Amino acid sequence: MNDANGSGGSAVVIASRNAKDVMRKFFEKNKKRNDSCIKEIAMKIVNDYHMHTKLSPCSGDQEATIENFVRVLAGKGFKSICITDHYWTLPENIWENRPDFKGPFPETLKQILENKKMVESTEFPMKVLVGAEIETYSPDCIGGTLELKEMLDVVLLPTDHFHLKSVIQQPDDHSFAGWGKHMMKFFIVGAKSRVGHVLAHPFVPMGEHNDKPREVLDTISDAEFFDALSIANEYGNAIEINSGCLIEPIYYESLIRPFTIAKKAGCKFTVGSDTHRLATLDRYDIIAQFCDECGITEDDFSSIMIR
User: How do residues 149-189 score in pLDDT, each as one tens digit?
Assistant: First the structure.
């Protein structure tokens, strides 16, 4: 990790023009990094286990299909991907405050299962899995079940979608420390629930302090992170490394500490782009750089990912 003067730090292998463009934009946004950071890193990302097709209402890209994802990533040498469209389970009346989220949601699960059946009967040049991203609405309400987990290949459980203010419980204390405690409570509850395989993009304080992640995370001690991540490991959760978050320098820098602690806590990891559009399948090298800075190797990847 670079210091305030921009010295030191690790770097990323530049594997293609597309990846190079992405990383240069990252360096331009993050003034503490520059092209001199670029070096060879042995890790090659060949999996994406967080992908949204046009089935997710927040996608809006008709080109975001399983077939198109496979076509693009097969050319990059990928071994496996997992489609994880959103599946929300709240009663219909609760969603009246979110007119942009269209139901009926049981139809979403029906389509997810149809996609799974299609994938299982189709020969692709890589392994394609079908899962879902569910939701933690409050410590008392998680939109998933053990039965759903058995039905799908991989279930992602986010515990920090606080930007969905009308449906995700907000903290009583809106200070940085209040948000930190609230986020950690959600994380631990999700980790203990056993309804997901992977805790998606953890420790990203979406919502009110979306632009101040370091201020929120700085209120959480190393010991608190270690205890929470040890619980996640004990209950069999993988921790997701999400390039959709890492591409933002303020998140990249603030997440190094908890993910370094996650490795020390014995956690296993998955990687994902969180793409909602076909055009954003170009953010994988930043995962390799982040892993290098956190001391995470391929041996730390979860067995869920087929390599």
Answer: 999 999 999 999 999 887 899 999 999 999 999 999 999 99
The whole-angstrom separation of Cα 98 and Cα 166 is 7
Mode of pairing for the β-strands spanning 132-133 and 155-158: parallel
**Nearest of 240, 227, 243 to residue 285 by alpha carbon:** 243
Q: Is residue 3 part of a domain?
A: no
Measured CA to CA, the distance from residue 27 to residue 21 in angstroms comes to 10
Q: Is residue 159 part of a domain?
A: yes
Q: What CATH number does the domain containing 171 carry?
A: 3.20.20.140
For residue 282 the two structure tokens come to 């170009």
Task: Return the SS3 of 81.
Answer: strand
Number of separate domains in the chain:
1
Rounded CA-CA distance 67/72 in Å is 9
Range of 28's domain? 17-300
